[in-house]
Amino acid sequence: MSEQPRAINLHYAEAGRGPAVVLVHGFPFSHRIWDAQMMALGRNYHVIAPDLRGFGESAAPEEGYGMDDFAGDIVALLVRLGIDRAVWVGHSMGGYITLAALRRWPSRVRAAAFVATHAHPDTPEKKLQREISADSAMLNGVGDMAFSMMGTIFASEVDRQGAMAQSIYEIMVGATPQAVAGSLRGMAARPDSRPMLAELSIPTLVIAGEDDEMVGAELTGELAELIPGAHYVIIPGAGHMPMVEQPDATTNALRAFLETL
User: Fold this and answer.
1) What does the domain layout of the chain look like in residue ranges?
2) Class assignment of domain 12-258?
3) C-alpha–C-alpha distance, residues 62 and 32, integer Å
4) What tens digit of pLDDT does each residue of 90-106 get?
């Protein structure tokens, strides 16, 4: 499908000139998780890092937090910037959003990199967990969720009280309750993307954190196996946030992939 999406204007950062690369952050973060990659890749590419609706500095509507909604916002941003096609780099939920773009607007995706993500739908148990968390975010705010995630998003050796980890915590607690709740429900409603993977004919990279507790190696490995010709890179010393835990290694993997295009 290629219809023009109904979208909101996103806040975004950009750097450099050249082929377009869109960095899509995961839940519940902002474009700031990609700061190291923007600086490095901006030397050779036009890098665009949006804040998804409800996160960072983008507006937070009351509804519209499905994966298609997020993807539509990014497609509209590309149209506004005069960019026909881009390489999409999606982290965690950003990977689900990239898969949504490949379903709805495949002509907008030149190549794809999936970071700490997978193609499975939620199990019934996971859907229920997300609904409980969504209700809690609306009733009590996002602080409890952010505190809980600090225990699982990093490799075990990362100092949770250190500057890097605390900067990520501050990003998480800055998310709006409606975006957190809406995204949780949007992720719960996403389809199984595995059947479409065998049909992908674009260059693809899968990056996994070696110590990722949230998305295990069996899921990232399966994602790479199901996509014809996909490259698979495991980042040592990284959990669910390889772009901030091991920024140089993550940047090098992305750069090596982009240089093949």
Assistant:
1) 12-258
2) alpha beta
3) 23
4) 999 999 999 999 999 99
